[in-house]
Amino acid sequence: KNQVEQSPQSLIILEGKNCTLQCNYTVSPFSNLRWYKQDTGRGPVSLTIMTFSENTKSNGRYTATLDADTKQSSLHITASQLSDSASYICVANTNAGKSTFGDGTTLTVKP
Amino acid sequence: GAGVSQSPRYKVAKRGQDVALRCDPISGHVSLFWYQQALGQGPEFLTYFQNEAQLDKSGLPSDRFFAERPEGSVSTLKIQRTQQEDSAVYLCASSLGGPGVPRYTDTQYFGPGTRLTVL
Fold this sequence. Notes:
Number of helices of chain B: 0
Oligomer: heterodimer
Helix content of chain B: under 10%
Strand content of chain B: over 45%
Structural class of chain A: mainly beta
Shape of chain A: globular
Distance between the termini of chain A: 41 Å
C-alpha cells in the first residue's frame, strides 16, 4: 500500500530560526515528490517538485532534498518568518498518476 | 489572473440531504481534480477530469458521490444522502494539462475549498 509519513506532526520555532521537516514515502512505481504549503483556510500551494534523479531543489528560503534510495525527503526552511506558519504537506506520485499525500507538519513561527 | 474558485465556501447540511459543490478552474486548464481533506489530515484523491471526460473516479468513497464537468470547465461534486462522515473540506485543483502531459508532473493549483459540515 502506498504511504507517506511526515514528521514531526507539529513544530514551534522562533522567528529567524531554521527548521527541517521530514517525509518518508513508500510508493511504487515512484515518479516524483512535491512539497506543498497550506495556509489555514486555503488550498495547498506547490513549493517544489523533484523527480527520481534530482536530490535537491530550492525555492527561495525553502530547500527540498530527496534520497530515492532510502525513500526520504526533507524540507529545510531558512531564516523563518511569521508568514511561514502553515501546514507543509509532502506528496509522492507514481507513474500511474496516483498521488499519496502525507498528513502534513504544522509549523508555527513565533515572534 | 483569477485562480481556482469554489462555492460555497461553507456548507452545513442535515444528515440525508443532498449537496452540490462547485469548482471554477483556471481558464484554459484541461485537468481538474477533486480531493477530500478531513481535519488534520492530508487531502485524499476523489476524481480526475481531462476536459469533460472523467478519466479516474477511483477515489470516490461510495456511489453517493458523483462529479461532472459537462462543458470541460466548471465542475460540480454532488453528494447524495449526506452522512456525518462526509464532513470534510472538499478541495478542487486544476492544471494546464494537455496532450502528452502526465497528470503526475503537472503543477496543480488549488482552490480554497468548501468546508462541509453534516449534522
